[in-house]
Structure formats: structure tokens, C-alpha cells
Amino acid sequence: MLRAAASLLALSAAGCTSIEKSLDDLTPNAGSEVRTGYLPGPSRQPVTFENIQAADPQSSIARSQHPKILAAYGGAYSDPKLEQALAGIVGKLATVSDDPARAYRITILNSPNVNAFALPGGYLYITRGLLALANDSAEVAAVIGHEMGHVTANHGIERQKREEAAEIAGRVVSEVLASDAAGQAALARGRLSLASFSRQQELQADVLGIRHIGRAGYDPYAAARFLEAMEDYSHIRNAFQAQDASLDFLASHPAAPQRIELARQHARNFGAPGVGEADRDRYLAGIDGMLFGDSAVEGYVRGRRFYHPGLGITFEVPDGFVIDNTAEAVLATGPGDMAIRFDGVALPATTSLIDYVNSGWIGGLDPTSIRREKIGNLDAVSARARGGEYAFDVTVIRVGGQVYRFLTALPLSLATSPVSVANRVAGSFRRLTEAETAALKPLRIRIVTASAGDTIQTLSNRMVGIDRKAEMFKLLNALGTGAVIKPGAKYKIVAE
Hints:
The protein is of the alpha+beta class. It is built from 18 helices and 18 strands.
């Protein structure tokens, strides 16, 4: 949240957390010298992913894109216990892949979004949001195996070539055939072909991924299970506090029912359901304590209240509203199509709040509605505006060199005025005390063991910081309609 106000929060570049394919897998008859990280010989060159891939021209593409991916997904996430768990999965898959000589590096991305993808040359990425949604090693192996399938089939290179060709065709049509209807239609067909080819790549990667996990001894039906989990996630993604739907798995990996059924068909090549290892307990131990949802950089959503420890501020939305902490702003949606937006901008002390409100950034402003206010001991100004089919209430609050802005919108078709809601939200804004800031803790995945008498309700009641607790508990633990809690079994909850 409030990345536009980055001047207030200096973000240091995160180092890359990566897991490389086992050295024993890379070098036949590896001796102790290799296992310590060096190749025999006078060069004593360290055995690293970069050195192994230095001669691979495909790796140059990934190396140039790697910093951009880190920036888009909040940097790399470091957790030695989790890294060790993933290293075991990657190692098992790599040894049974169609290209066992290839090295892989997997980076855990520090993002609540649920996603995984690959770049040419063996660069694999998986978010901690996806790891929170997965329920066993087999499901994670299915995701990683799918992405390794893209690498093995050189899909990244093929896609790049086709995108370059489409870009050239687009320039020809726009510059040479701008008025040619047939040319425009040809370009449209070309774009459709490109999209269709991408779907074919996904299906091919599905086949390769299921083949990988089946050969490695994992449950081959895990791929279909995880695709089903993604469908459920799409209906409750805001509970993960994910910032941008375009960064999600479903944006590039459509989980259509047909694709789920095809995954089951390919899994049957390895046997009936129940074949293969799920490795649930070991996986749950690996993610126990993993960060969940937003980090302190974006601020925390706790029920109806938003906290930002770095900026030292907090506010609350009314009953019936759900907060979504996006990269550009904090959004809240409520009944009757009512919406609230909260963000911040820098403002010089020499600019008055009234001058700022009148500076032209509010369309449809009613100048007669501008009012000076005090919210606690903070200077504020409120105003009203109209635009399209909506009425707006705007409140700006000055905190040092920063101005925080609340925008409340309500359709004109509703008789209720947005002013009362806006006053309640803006009136709840205040600075955090030092004690409150110190007490704020990030949410984490915690693994609990069910006791006799536990139910979905009793376990979900132990979760904190999220709405719709029971629904979220069932999503995290892949519990369908009619599911019951088993005493002695392990389950995921979200807690501090």
C-alpha cells in the first residue's frame, strides 16, 4: 500500500533467496570436493547456478529479467527451513526430468499473490502466497514440475519469438495498412493465434509436469487438486491480501474445468487415486511460521482496521466493508456499491490544504462544500463532488510533509449520502502510538494439531487478522462441503 509515498519508506533491495539443484545431481561420481562447492582442478571455480549456466544463451534472458521480477513481487523471501523443503522437491523432480543435466534455481518471492512461473535457462519462481495455499509436497511438486516443463520445452524462447513476430506484424499493419480492413483483421487473427499457442504451451507443460511428479513418486493427482484450489482462491483472493490480480497464477494459468479433467486423465497413467506420496506432514512443517499476507512495508489489514507501522497511521472502515490493500491504495468495498479509497501524497508545508483541494485533482468539485476540520489534533479539509453516476466525499489530512486522502463514493441512485460513512472513516484516522507500533506483528501460517471435539468453527476461530475465518480456513486446508475435522490431524491457521 502507498507505494506512491515511497519517499517515506526507503526500501532496500532484497537479496535473492534461491535454491539450486543438488550438486550430486549435477556431477556424476561427485566427490567431497564437489559437495563443498568447488570443482576439481586448478581453476577452483565455485559450483554455482550462474557458473553452470554461464554458457547457456537462454540464461541471459532470465538474468536481465530477474531484478524486474524481484521488484514486482516484493523481493525474495528468506526462510532456511522452507528453502530446505523446496530444495528436496526440486532435486527429486530434476533427476527424473526429460533434461536431467539442466540446473535449476528456484526463488521464493515475498508476495501474498498466488503464483509460480519460469524463465528460460532454469530460473523458477514461486510466491509464498502459493506455498500458503498448497497442502502438501505433491501439490508444490505439481506446480514446480509444470514450470520445469515450460523450461524443458523451451516455451519461453518460443513465446519470445512469437511475441517479436507479432510486434513486427503490428507495426506493419499500423504503419502501412492503417486503413486496410483486411490487414486489421489479419492482425486480429494473428493475436488470437498467439493466445491459442500459449494455451497449447500450458497444456503441454501440464503433461510434462504430471509426468515429472509421477516419476518422482509424488501423487500425480496433486496437479488437478491444486487447479481446483486455484478456482476456490479466485473467489476469496482478498483474504490473502494480494495486491494485484495481474500477478496471480490465474492471470497466466487459466484453471478451466476441462484442464482439471485433463490433468486427472494424465494422472491415471500412473494408477488409481491414492498412488504416489503426498508428503503432507513434512511440507506443513516446512511452512510453519511462514509470513502470510502483507508485510510491514505495505501495512496490515486486521479485520475492519488498517495499520501501517512504517507510516505510523491507522483507520477503520464500517461494518459490512471489506478492505483490499493494493499496491496503489487501500480500497474498501461495502453494501450498495459504496467504495472507499485511501492513499497518500507528498505536499509541501507551504501549500495549504484548501489550495490543494482546489488544485484541480478532484473532478466535479463543489467549491461551496469545502470545509476546514480537525481530526484529533490533525489539520484536515473535506469537500464534496459529483462525477458520472456517483457522489463523492473527499477528506484530506496533513501529517508532516504527507497528505492522506480518503475518497468515499456512492451511486446517485441511492438516497443515502456518503458523508456519514466518510465522516466515520476519516474520523477514525489517527497516528499510532509507539506501543501500538511495537505490538504490531505480521501474520504467519501456523500448523496446529486438532484435538477431540475440534470443528472447523473452533479451529477457524483461532485465526486472526482476516475476514470470513471459516471460509478461509477451509480454503487453506482444502476442505470441501461436508468435511469434518479429524482428531490428531494437522491443519493450517493464520495467526501472529
